[in-house]
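Quick one, T. Sequence first:
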Amino acid sequence: MLTRKQLDLLDFINKRLVRDGVPPSFDEMKEALDLRSKSGIHRLITALEERGFIRRLPHRARAIEIVKLPEALDKGHDGRAGFEPRVIDGDRPDRKPAGAFALDQGAALELPMLGRIAAGIPIEAVNDGTSSVTVPGAMIAGSGKHYALEVKGESMIDAGINSGDVVIIRETSAVDNGDIVVAQVDGYEATLKRYKKSGDMVMLEAANPAFETRLLRHDQVEVQGKLVGLIRTY
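Structure tokens:
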């Protein structure tokens, strides 16, 4: 799984290689990703190399070779990608696991199933707390409280999130532009959307052209969590 910045950098390098035949300079990468120093670019380059997406050729200036591209870029990256779902095939959360979870990826964990989240017109999230879902420990990103929600609606299908899927959320209000978040609007409506902030305005962006993106004042939006994983149900 790539972070948003890693994906953006890989996309930028690939486009420059296609256009010019040579990769961009570190200064150009820093400017394109709006980073303050080249040390951040060095870390991103190292991460992409460790994950097998690029190869640095020794003893040559600006020598970076694209080894492979994630599916999001192979299909044409439109600038909205920032989450590449870690998908675990599984049974419905209110049934017993049918052995479909990849539990060898880490110790199995039980997360509370807090209800439903809208990926469409915002609706109030149901918080009954009466059920749970089993997930591989490797799906849990970082420390802190995690929980699961069932997705209703199709506004995030271009991000690989379908109606009926179960999303794994890390409870946090600290998110970056481009993250997919659980946002509470006007104190009661909860929705799953891509988050972008500019000045005093917040954009809750759909990943489906059939759905409208909402532009709201920052005081109308409370971020309650960040998407870290997804369980596909059938």
